[in-house]
Structures are given as C-alpha cells and as structure tokens.
Amino acid sequence: MNTVHRQRGQVLILIFGAMFLGGGLAAGVFSSGTALKDMKKDIKQLDLDAHREKQALDILEGWKDTVKPRWKANEKRVDELFSLLEKQHTPAATLEELFVEQAGDVAEAEASVLMLRDELRTVLNRDEWTRVFTVK
Amino acid sequence: MRFGLLVLLISGFLLGSCSSDKLSAADVITAGFADLRFTANSAVGDSVRRDKYLKASLALEAELRSFDEYFGGAVGTFRTAFADYDAGQDSLRRISDEYFARQKDARTRFVDAHAAMAASVTVDEWKVLSRKEISLLKDIRSASVRSLQ
Lengths: 136, 149
What we know:
The complex is a heterodimer. Chain A is an all-alpha fold. Chain A is 65% helix and 3% strand. Chain A has one domain. Chain A has a two-stranded antiparallel sheet. Chain A is elongated. Chain B has one domain (2-146).
C-alpha cells in the first residue's frame, strides 16, 4: 500500500497563478471558501476540547481574513496587467511598478499566514496536525 | 506553411480531444503558441517583421514553459514543507524566497520577449496578435491555478 500522504491541494492553492502576478506560495492558503469549510470540518472531527477547537477555528478564520482581500486586489491587478500587455507600447517600468506593488502585498500576506500556521501548530499536536494537513 | 497547418491540426486535436478546462498549462502553452504563430504567419505580411515576431514568440513560449515546469516542483516542495509539523518559518521562507527570485527573473524575460513581439509588428497587426496572446496568457494562468486544486 502506498503510504505516501498527499497534501490537500485545495488547501494550498496559489491564488495568483504562476508567473503573472503575486504567486506567493503561502499566501494562497485558504483561498477558497470550500477549502476553509473542509478544514473546519476536519478540525471538528479531531474531537478537541471546546477551547482548543475554538482556538483552531479562529485561526482558520484569521487565515481567510488575511488572504481573501488580497486575492480580490490581485484579481484587479491581473486585469490591469492584461490590459497593459494588450497595449503595444506599455513601458516595462509600468509593468514593473505593478509587479513590485503586488510583491509587497504578497510578502505581507505570506508573513501573516506563516505566523498563523505557527499559532495553529501550538494548538494542534503532531498527530492532529497530520490528520488535518494530509490525506491518505 | 504545411508545417504550420500540421501544428494547427495537432493543437486543434489537443484542444478538441479534451475539454479545454482539463488541459495542463504545458498543453495550453503548446497548443496556444502554435495557434498564435499560425495567426502571425497570415497576419504579418512582411517577412522580416514576421520572423522577428516569431523569434520573440519562441522566447516567450520557452520562458512560460520553463517557469511552468519549475512552478509545479516549487509548489510540491512547499506543500510538503507546509504539511511537516516540524518545519519552521525559516525553512518555508527559504523555499518561497527562492520562488520569488525565480519568478522575478522569469518576469523580466517575459516582459522583454513580449516587448520584442510588440515592437516587431504594425499597429494593425498588433491588434490581431495581442488579442490572441492575451487570451492565451489568460488560459495559461487558469490552467496553472487549476493544476493546484
């Protein structure tokens, strides 16, 4: 039997696609409502005491609150980027400005998500963490 | 010309044989750039300008393909680290820092190739080709995001 665990793809979706904008590796965590819903369900199935369960669920909410507005802002930037690319003589510096702006946003989101990940690690033990973050 | 038709037929087969929302980014790149070059062959009358455009489009395709390959690996590495209970912020940051650096370089080459394509054609030719290119870029982006779900 294959014992390799597959990380839940839907949990770690990169919200910004590959090259065009953003692309923060951590910033996409919980980028979809479905993923968050699934995660909450998994947390609830861990049979944690009420206090720990609330802590974990609050962290997931914080995760969503961190990423969601940035996702929306990114979508606007992507639209702007494609409009600029469609113009024949958009200066490279104009595109670069957009990239830099986005990179700053992603860096902030990533820092927040990694902090929240650390918080979640203090709430869940190793076994609980594994049950939430991997699927057989 | 015969080769162009063949490529278009193959890309048409690729696009037609599976629903476009199931194609990988690599498939979208292959089919989309074949289609873009086929369009350029008929849209750009002057052979010197056409050759410049085609050459730049090959560079753009190579960049997108290279980054797409890297992207999949980076995501896998990050996901594994993220799921590792013992992995701290430092190890995750190392992975993403490398990713950002690679992404920055790739973007620079992407913008250079795109600018070379734009500079090689007339305003009217660009109207036709840019629409096609942007549509392709959007499809690649969608396929990349989809591959992570």
